[in-house]
Amino acid sequence: MSPEKKEPKQNLADKLGSFFHPPDSGGKKGPLPPKAHFTFWYFIIAFLILMALQQYFLSAKVETIPYSQFKQELAAGNIDNLTIGPEVITGTLKAKEKTPSQQFITLRVDDPGLVKDLDEHKIAYSGRYESKWLSNILSWIVPIAIFFLIWRYAMSKMSKMGPGAGLMSFGKSKAKIFQQSETMVTFEDVAGIDEAKAELEEVVEFLKSPEKFQKLGGRIPKGVLLVGPPGTGKTLLAKAVAGEAKVPFLSISGSEFVEMFVGVGASRVRDLFSQATSQAPCIIFIDELDALGKARGINVFGGNDEREQTLNQLLVEMDGFESNKGVIIMAATNRPEILDPALLRPGRFDRQVLIDRPDIEGREAILKIHSKNVLLGPDVDLRKIAALTAGFVGADLANLINEAALLAAREGKEAVGPAEFDEAIDRVVGGLEKKKRVMNPQEKNIVAFHESGHAIVAESVKFADPVHKISIIPRGIAALGYTQQRPTEDRYLMTRSELLDRLAVLLGGRVAEELVFGEVSTGAQNDLQRATDIARAMVTEYGMSDQLGLVTYERPRQSIFLPDNFTQSKTYSETKAAQIDEEISRVIDEAHKRVHKILTERRKVLDDLARLLLQKEIVQGEELRKMLSAFGEGSRQSMSQA
């Protein structure tokens, strides 16, 4: 037997259309003509016409007459069956020779002699009391009914917006639940953070086989806090843990707990843990925990702090649910120093896993993962790209691969080559290239000598990174040119000599302008700012000043991952502050003299490199090194400290 065919649903217009337009002879209802959509309105119009015909032709007509005419008819004795109401008078005009009897109505006026006149003419009359209880009730019921219908309509619309959108669901958790089949991320998708992966593999073992640890008296850790700079892969690593353990994954942001209504955040925390307990074993992941878990303190505005109530409820829930329920809380933050101490104690977040910026090995592994689906050219060396991207995190490298693929597709190439990666690095670091920006010849000449000064000094001092490329093509908002250096290795410590060499490279552009033009421009503003920061750090933080000794004069920054933008109070006297300023000026002045000597000795190379830049706009580092070798002294020679 063939399966039963279900008829498609019809709306009201289609149903009415089928009523007035029966199916065709073939038994199937064909498509309705455009006018079929108005059949229902035709029905309403016909109904109104019938009502009007009944009102005007079938029902008895009542004539409205003025009160003066009523008094005249009364005096003539032509009135019968009179009914006196509070506001109107109705009755019947007697039939005359050629006109039949006619009902009438007239507006009642203040006439004290009306009853006396009716008695004199012996006219039958009666009174009528008009009750207004119905109108009074309707005046209350109708507005209430209208507001009720509006409320019902609004509630139905909010309920259709999805779970958690209704008015009564403010206290419900907004966590997104990913089942084990939906979490497709595993540890194979995570690279560059091998130590963190090894730490979290044990958490996966807890979730897979908890009895292995419980039989020896151990307990599953309640919480794991992932700490690291933005973009290092904290959320990705949490999803990988859920994917490896094949358990449900409840994801929510810390800012989604707090609302304008008091008590909503605490209610959402309770609902979140209730959902997690019903789905156990599972993982709760709270992203940006610092939005919820800031250290509790005195509220300067007074009153009750909703955020503190939410945090208190989170502390209670983390300390309250049993460890054998198989619920593990994972959270991510890049500001661990502002979290409440009660949140970080053992028993709540038992483990803190640092996810740092990847080294060159990690960057290469991350590039391999993100380039799996990208067609790379045979001459692409991911190791070289990893060396050029020092300081990049996983999100930066993913964006780099995507930008390179887009550039190759825009140019119609069949594969992504080194040129696209080189351009993508420049775009990510420096911004969009602006070849059409109009610069007068004098400005372009200044930029060429400025960047040449940076490059020559970088190749002349011992501890600076090698020059990879020099460009005078404007990029981004204010960069009129740039000198790109490629680190030979990842560094975690800097010596005094290395800092002085970096300081010299930063001053190379400004000194080149002084040497060639005898004039300075505003193009060195960023270089001077960075040079001042290095010199100040050497004097006040690193104890590298012989005059001030082994003392630090700056407090540690408030955040270990984010720059500190807040002004800090001084912990030293004004006399010491003056000595600090003098020492900073001395360090920069000595670096200035050293750079002036380097560029004076290499003035010919400076002129040649600037002319080459004006012709080609981009010069590779190999060309600069050949020019220095031809000069006779060779590049990367050790210069004596000034």
List keywords for this structure.
642 residues; alpha/beta; Signal recognition particle alu RNA binding heterodimer, srp9/1; 6-stranded mixed β-sheet; 5-stranded mixed β-sheet; 21 helices; 47% helix; elongated; disordered C terminus
The tally of domains stands at 6
Based on CA atoms alone, the radius of gyration comes out at: 43 Å
Number of separate strands: 14
The DSSP helix count reads 21
Strand order of the largest sheet: 6-8-9-10-7-11
Using the alpha-carbon principal axes, give the shape. Answer: elongated
Question: Assembly type of the shown chains?
Answer: single chain
Helical fraction equals: 40-55%
Beta-strand share of residues: 5-15%
CATH homologous superfamily placement of the largest domain: Peptidase M41
The assigned CATH architecture of the largest domain is Up-down Bundle
Structural class: alpha/beta
Distance separating the two termini: 100 Å
Query: What's the CATH first level of the largest domain?
Result: Mainly Alpha
Q: How would you sum up the major sheet? A: 6 strands, mixed
| Low-confidence parts | 1-38, 161-168, 637-642
Average pLDDT confidence is 78
Provide the CATH topology of the largest domain: Methane Monooxygenase Hydroxylase, Chain G, domain 1
